[in-house]
Amino acid sequence: MGLQDNHYSEENHGHHEYLDLGDFPLISGEVLLNAKLAYKTLGALSDKKDNAILFPHMWSGTSASMESFVGPGRPLDPDKYFIIFPGQFANGFSSSPSNTKAPQDAGNFPNIMIGDDVIAQHELITKVFGISELQLVTGWSMGAEQTYEWAVRYPSMVKRAVPFAGTAKTTPHDYIFVRSHENAIKSDPAWAEGFYGKATDVHVGLRRHAETWSVMGLCSEFYKQEIWREIGFGSLDEFLVGFWEAYFKPMDPNNLIWMAWKWRHGDVSLNSKNNLDEALGRITAKVTAVAFANDMFFPPSDIVEEVSKIPNAEYRLVESLWAHFTMFCMNEKDKKAIDDIFTEVLST
Amino acid sequence: MGLQDNHYSEENHGHHEYLDLGDFPLISGEVLLNAKLAYKTLGALSDKKDNAILFPHMWSGTSASMESFVGPGRPLDPDKYFIIFPGQFANGFSSSPSNTKAPQDAGNFPNIMIGDDVIAQHELITKVFGISELQLVTGWSMGAEQTYEWAVRYPSMVKRAVPFAGTAKTTPHDYIFVRSHENAIKSDPAWAEGFYGKATDVHVGLRRHAETWSVMGLCSEFYKQEIWREIGFGSLDEFLVGFWEAYFKPMDPNNLIWMAWKWRHGDVSLNSKNNLDEALGRITAKVTAVAFANDMFFPPSDIVEEVSKIPNAEYRLVESLWAHFTMFCMNEKDKKAIDDIFTEVLST
Question: What's the CATH fold of domain B10-171+266-346?
Answer without folding.
Answer: Rossmann fold (3.40.50)
